[in-house]
Amino acid sequence: MAVTALRDASQRLAPLLAVTFLVLLSGCGAAPPPAGGPVVLVVVDTLRPDHLGLYGHSRDTSPELDAWAQAGRVYERAWSTSSWTLPSVASLFTGRLPSAHGAVAVLPLPRENPLFGRLPDAIPTLAERFSRAGYATAAFVTNPYLKPLLGLDRGFDVYDYAAASQSPGRRADSMVERALSWIDTSSQRPFFLLLHLIDPHMDYAAPPPQRGRFTQGETSRLELPVGSASSLREGRFPKPAGGAELGPEDWSFVSAAYDEEIAFVDAQLGRLRRGLEKRGILERGIVAFTADHGEEFFEHGGFEHGHSLHEEVVRVPLVFWGAGVRAGRERAPVSLADVADTLLEGAGLSAPEGSQGVSLWPNLSRGEPIAERTLHFQDVLYGEDRRGAVRWPWKAVVSDATGSEYWNLEEDPGEQVLPTGKIPPAVARLLVEIQAQGHTGNAEATALDHETRQELEALGYLE
């Protein structure tokens, strides 16, 4: 009788024990993702994280984003995969490094007929993955390197491109309005939205009330708008009547003008946040915020971006919000190549085939540790090919022309002093990993049409 009762009790308890075991097992991984929820990816062109309040900037450039970040997960050490738009956004869309996706500059870049690698049709993109899962997809972009000509439009039902301009039609306020209007027409389906804002890219000419907010107290000879990129790169006063070398007060003015553009974008990000909240997007979906690359202000003798792999051009902001996201700050190094895998897992979908990134979703949703790994950044637009990598705290960059350089970012975050003496074993291993990635070749070299050349010249890329 006792044996029979014990057997009956164990049979009744078995299902409960099984369920309990599964619950405990599921608790060891990431929280269940909000499958089928909307996904919004915001990319601000040419945005340095250290010019934002949430990353420690002294100027009040980003009060809206700073406040919003309190409810999100902020990645303090995020690197792009390149220092200019085409390869970095291609990595954002595919999870692959430039050496793997081939959307790069064909170096040396000839002035008369520059060639760029088109993203091959065989490489799956983030938008294609969402589209196949039944999502409505749309992109609102302005940078000429994101034109359909170079293959980054694949998978989008709507691809709203117009050339970057200082006219009201393509500024951040108008772009936010376009994006919110599209959401209102697509809210009956899950959707994936890319919003790309180019305002912090030269020329620096923020509209009122930000115009003059930081520059009016400067003593520079320069005036708004700040343009003439070639003259500034050479360190010359850009007016023909000037002829004098630019000094620290001039670079301070340029940086202040750049911050005014960031402040303008920040105000529009506040509008975007309120628009998403009003539509319930933050409650049921995921929002990611990042940049394609940063900007140099002569920290290493150069200006703008695309010419080096220093921290000021390869570090980017990275913040996530929404359903299932655990607020906080994360110091583990991460890559722009991780964003595709992360957004897809957050939506309950698998990563794109061939991705070299990792999903940050376990960290986003439960604070799971991120495994230590090497992060790579590759391809420049000007000069000799360069390839680099970080395995915290060491960073190394390799050039066929100048050899290798390395820094300890914990001790020298600004890369101001090149170490001498015997190369540390950790750096030697890093150099081997960089060489193993190979050069950034391209699969489909594409010549630009006349219109695209003119658009790039207007941004200071081609002269």
Can you offer a commentary on this structure?
With 463 residues, the chain is of the alpha/beta class. The chain folds into two domains: 39-366 and 444-458, Alkaline Phosphatase, subunit A (3-Layer(aba) Sandwich), CATH 3.40.720.10; 386-438, no CATH class. It has 14 helices and 18 strands. It has an eight-stranded mixed beta sheet, with helices on both faces. Strands 14-15-16-17 form a four-stranded antiparallel beta sheet, with helices on one face. A hairpin with a 5-residue loop joins strand 9 (296-297) and strand 10. The termini are far apart. Residues 1-33 have low confidence and may be disordered.
CATH class descriptor of the largest domain: Alpha Beta
Radius of gyration: 24 Å
Structural class: alpha/beta
Average pLDDT, rounded to a whole number, is 86
What does the main sheet amount to? 8 strands, mixed
Topology, element by element:
Layout: H1 2-26, E1 39-44, H2 63-69, E2 73-75, E3 78-79, H3 85-94, H4 98-101, E4 115-117, H5 126-132, E5 136-141, E6 158-161, H6 172-186, E7 191-197, H7 229-233, H8 248-278, H9 281-284, E8 286-291, E9 296-297, E10 303-304, H10 311-314, E11 318-322, E12 328-330, E13 334-335, H11 339-346, H12 361-366, E14 375-378, E15 386-391, E16 394-399, E17 403-408, H13 425-437, E18 445-447, H14 450-458
Parallel strand pairs: 1-7, 1-8, 2-12, 3-13, 5-6, 5-7
Antiparallel strand pairs: 2-11, 4-18, 8-11, 9-10, 14-15, 15-16, 16-17
Helix pairs in contact: 2-8, 6-8
Brief account:
The chain is built from 14 helices and 18 strands.
